[in-house]
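Researcher: I need the complex structure. Ligand is iron/sulfur cluster. Inputs:
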Amino acid sequence: MSNGSILKRVEIIFTDYDKVNEIVDKAVKKSNTEIIGELLESGLRGRGGAGFPTAKKWEFTSKQVSEEKYVICNADEGEPGTFKDREILTQVPRKVFAGMAICGKVIGAKQGFIYLRGEYRYLLLNLEPELDAFNEYLKQIGQDFQIKIFMGSGAYICGEESALFESMEGKRGEPRNKPPYPTEAGYKNKPTVINNVETFVYALMICHLGAKKFKDLGTTDSRGSKVFSVSGDTPKPGIYELELGMSVEKFVDDFGDGDTKAVQVGGASGFCVPRKKFKDTIIGFEGVPTGGSMKLFNSSRSMFNVLRNYLDFFVEESCGQCTPCRVGCQQLLKGIEAVKKGEKPIAYLEQLLKLANTMKIASKCGLGQSVGNSFASIVNNFKEEMIY
Amino acid sequence: MTEIRELVKSLADKYGRERESLIPILQGIVLKENYLSEEAMTEVARELDLSAAQVYGTASFYSFLDTEPRGKYVIRVCKTITCDMHGKKQIVRTIEDLLKIKVGETSKNKKFTLLETNCLGWCHEGPVMLINDQPYSALTVEKVHSILVDYIKNR
Ligand SMILES: Cc1cc2nc3c(=O)[nH]c(=O)nc-3n(C[C@H](O)[C@H](O)[C@H](O)COP(=O)(O)O)c2cc1C
Ligand code: SF4
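Model: Output:
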C-alpha cells in the first residue's frame, strides 16, 4: 500500500518560458534534416494517445510535394480525466505556438491552426492577444507562417484527427477511412501534420535542450517524460510531469490515498488496472499507454458505476457512422444494466465481452475500437461488482 | 432586412462564405441568439449557397450548436465520473431547486437552461460547471448557491 514514496518530478514543459523567442530564432536557422534528426534521436512519440513517432510524421509530410500544407495543433482534449492541455495552454501558450512554427518551417507550411474545444472558449481571452503577438513576431523575423484558432463545438469525436479535419471543413465530425493518412491528405486533403498540444512543446524543447536530455528519461519504448492529469481518490489531484515507464505501483505509492483498488489509465478509452496488477503494469507504450489521464479509485467506489459512466459517455459521443460502434455501445450499456438487475444471467457478460471484441475489429475509428479496453479490463477484473 | 439576416451577413463578412466558414458562423449566431432557429439556419444556407439540410446536418452534430431555444445563460454541469464521485448530483439538485427547472429545461423567463455534459477538463477540481463560456470549479452547495444568486440578481 501507499508508503508515500515520491516519483521524480520532471521540468521541461513549463520551464524556460522567457527563452521561447531565442529557441525559435535558433531553430529556424537549423536545417530541416538537423531538426528531424534531433527529434528522431530523442525518440519522441505523440502525446495525444496513439504514440506515433513525431519525427516520422514531420519527415513524411516534409517530403510531400504540395503548394498547400498545414500544421494543426489538436487541443480538443475530450478524453475523460485529461486536463493537461488546458493547463499548458494557460501557462505556456507561446511554447505551443513556437513548436507549431518550427514544424511549419520543417514541412514547408504557411498556415497553422489550433483546434480548441468549445469547452475551453474562456481561454481565448488570453490566447488571442498572445497569439497576435507571436504571429507578429514571426513576421518580424521573416518566417512565413501564421497561426489561427478554430473553435470546436462540443464533440469528443472531433479529437480524432480525420473527424477534426471534417469539422474544420464545416461538416459533421465523422471520421474518414484510412489510408490516406493526414501526412498525405489531411485538412482540405492537403498534407498535414496534426499533433497534440504537449507534443509540440516537447518538440520545441528537444530543439532547445538536445535529444539526449529527453532520451535519458523513460524507457526504450517510451522515451522522455509526459504530463499526467491526476484525479479521483487522491490527496493531491492535479498536473504532474513525470518520467515514462514507471509501474502503476510506484504511481500509486505517490498519488494513492492508501486504499487504492484500481487505476484507470488513459481515460474512458484506456485500461483499468486492478490492485493485484499494480506491480507488473508499466505506464508507457510497452504497457498501458495514456494520453495523460490517471484516475484513482479507492475501495468505496463501485466499478459498476465507473463502467456505466464510461459507456454512457460512449453512447453519447459515438458519431453513429458505423454500426458496430453505434449499436455496440448501446448494447453494452443495456447489457451490464440487465445483468446487474438480474434480468440476464451472469453468463451474458461473456457475450458482451465478445461484442466488445467485435467492436475492436469492426469499428471504423479509434473510438469504437477502444471501447473494449475499459469494458474488458473492468468486467474481467471486477466481475463480482458487475453482478451483485 | 430582418435582424437575423443582418447578423448572418455580418458574420459571413467576417468569416467568409466558404464551407469552412460554416461552423464559426453558426457559433457566432449561438453566441448572440443562444440557439440556431430555423430562420437562422435557412439564412446561413442562403448566404453560403448550401442546402438547408447541409447546414442542419452540421449543426445537429455538435452539442454546443443548439437547435432548440435556450436561455440567456446555459448551465452545463459535468457528469463524468470524477465529478460524479465528488458530488455532482447534489450540485444539480441545488440548481434545480433554485431555478425551479429540471435538467434539459429552460426557465420561464428564458434566463437559464440547465444541461448535463461530458468531461469539461477540470477533474482535479470537480464538481465543475460552465455557465455559457465561464467555468466554475470546486463547487459546493453553498458556492453554487451564491454564484446563481449573483446571476439571478445582477445579470
Ligand atoms: C475518439 C478519439 C479522440 C481523440 N481525441 C484526441 C484529443 O482530444 N487530443 C489529441 O491530441 N489527440 C486525440 N486523439 C488522437 C488523434 O487522432 C491523433 O492521433 C493525435 O492528435 C496525434 O497527435 P500526436 O501524434 O501528437 O499524439 C483522439 C483519437 C480518437 C480515436
Ligand atoms: S467507430 Fe464510432 S465514432 Fe468511430 S466512425 Fe464508427 S461510429 Fe463513429
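Model: Summary of the prediction. Residues 71 and 109 of chain B are 8 Å apart (CA to CA).
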